[in-house]
User: Fold this.
Amino acid sequence: MTSVEGGLVVAQSGGPTTVINSSLCGVVQEAMRQDCFTQILAANNGILGVLNEELFDIRKEKRETIESLRRTPSAMAGSCRYKLKGMDASREDYERILEVFRCHDVHYFVYIGGNDSMDTADKLGKLAEEEGYDLRVMGVPKTIDNDLAYTDHCPGFGSVAKYLCASVMEAGRDTEALYTSDTATVFETMGRNAGWIAASAGMASRSKEDAPHLVYVPEVPFSAEAFAKDVKRTLKDIGRAFIVASEGLVDEEGNYVAEQKGEFATDAFGHKQLGGVSETLKTIVEQKVGVKCRYCKPGTAQRNAMHFGSLTDSEEAYMAGKVATRTAAEGESGFMVTLVREKGDDYRCTTGLAKLSDVANAEKKLPREYMNEAANHITDEMRKYAGPLIRGEVTIEIGKDGMPVYGRFEKHFVEKKCPAWAGAKK
Amino acid sequence: MTSVEGGLVVAQSGGPTTVINSSLCGVVQEAMRQDCFTQILAANNGILGVLNEELFDIRKEKRETIESLRRTPSAMAGSCRYKLKGMDASREDYERILEVFRCHDVHYFVYIGGNDSMDTADKLGKLAEEEGYDLRVMGVPKTIDNDLAYTDHCPGFGSVAKYLCASVMEAGRDTEALYTSDTATVFETMGRNAGWIAASAGMASRSKEDAPHLVYVPEVPFSAEAFAKDVKRTLKDIGRAFIVASEGLVDEEGNYVAEQKGEFATDAFGHKQLGGVSETLKTIVEQKVGVKCRYCKPGTAQRNAMHFGSLTDSEEAYMAGKVATRTAAEGESGFMVTLVREKGDDYRCTTGLAKLSDVANAEKKLPREYMNEAANHITDEMRKYAGPLIRGEVTIEIGKDGMPVYGRFEKHFVEKKCPAWAGAKK
Assistant:
């Protein structure tokens, strides 16, 4: 394909990460270098911004704001969890998006997100083709969960891993110092149905002494009995137990160990909301093992911890964004940029392309061999895989007041040109 | 008084902090400079180490381990929650401590801890005097709760404050990006009955946009109704709500908002164990306000977060330890070193001395004027007070693997010389 002249819309989707703004920075700075983009627009709050025709002009942002993207966590353009379903169920939404693109002469769409976003981008690209509208669609991978297929790993994962390793080391020292009274600690990580994040925190144990002593992931059914046994054995061995557990642990019947009840039990995507694995495991330790147990649940702080972000992760996120835009400018469409680990002893990462439709319909769980036989700690394979992703630290700006300085867009919205629309809003 | 030749025992007590090892480093490095100390011993796990005659020789530790104390969180000599009560109830324990000191020719005791430790040190000093044993007792303040009287602030507080400010800023950006679905977040801090820590996290809001939008402390009774109103108003104003709440919130009847039940409901000190303020507030938000609410509870990670520790805090902790040892070497006894804020526009901190007995029997709550009238956010007075304490960052060592490198003692225990004892152990 050859490129066309037209506007570019970039959007950020789903749960924020420490480095999703680095990808946005890569998209924007590369777009500024290319001639084919008549406008560089960001959608306010992900796809909602397109549906609601809330687009702001990136070129009107201060240069230092654009620069600050690489050291500012979370989604600076805003994100959302608005779910586009299949073409039949959500045709109106897809048509609306194309309408907005047409009104603003947008011919490029870069979507930074996970599976669902790649699915949306894919369907949108196909609909445009069907309707004869020239739209170049590219995806940039983003998820702390690290569960996208076709890419060696996902931007966002390395930073959450690095932060969790430091936090587990630190909270682990607390349990080490106070083991005569506060004998056990459960540390709950995100990760939903994939154990990548919990497993990554396993790297904090450089020696037997170090936390964590036990690690549990959703890929292997969780048994309270086996868990209590593991804790007892650990107490016998070293007098204390520091446990990392994924929020998404499931029992042998496939039920979440800590399923939430009530009105907010599922989100807009129908995903079950999880809460309370740490409280559940704490109760098991206190009741079945008989020692006091504390718990830590850093929650959303973990996926935005730029103050100890991974430089490797940040640079790769930037690269993925940059390559997506360059590839679109070169006339390609329908791909997500992938991260490719080059062969060899030293870690080196380049990029590739995967079809959006392929990525949309696959997910990558933690391989069983990344966990030990008892499924209660990680193996060297996991360390070899995830170790390189947490190297290097992002240098953030720190104010005179001792706190980080993060950027914020001014958001100069472009004039609305489309017919009013009854859908979306939020 | 004049000084005597004799051994020094140093012990760390209670909940670890990011900088309690900096105080230990100050004690040790100053002791190495003085001639009066025939031995420099550390008690293994606080006062338990003295009772159990588990003392290790600091001079046998590697020089780099001693250096690493200033950048290693938690209590490297070990800590404990073993409670010594009044002289009548715990006389055996106090006598045992003196026996151990006599056996090892120890004439100096530096205790790094909070109220309870100052009380122990005080009683011990008085008993020694009664028995005609020359013992110089000095206290070094340590508590993240910042509730010790007679000192402007407490080592440990500045670092937890700095880390929480960064974490609240970061998790706050998550809520900001995702407000259309994940509209509210509760962030639970430590601090027990004092609101210093929760209030310190209030400093993260440099502008109305910034998290936190609401801050709640234990000094003012918590009302679910008023809270729900506050959240609703905040949602109306800026479309999202980020809430900082202390673990120790109490209702109008004086009951903990989230009191824990069961076997581990109180610790050895009779302190009620708290858990679940964040879950409780999340439920209130979802039920009474009707929006989805997430929560973060960093737990013990917050008091050991050396990867973003306050340099001011670390240096003051070192200074307090150093001055305590020097003061003891000069022949004084029965004092805790205090931190004194010098008058003037620029922050400058020196040290003073307060009687152990005075410190033991007082506690310093957050002044009402550090909170606004509605008691739902901090005032400029709080910022003026706590702002200087979070300035500067500790430089930690980071390994090639991208994770912090923290030290550990080898613990060369000195030979036991005392009669066996039936008490303590743990």
In short: Chain A has a mean pLDDT of 95.
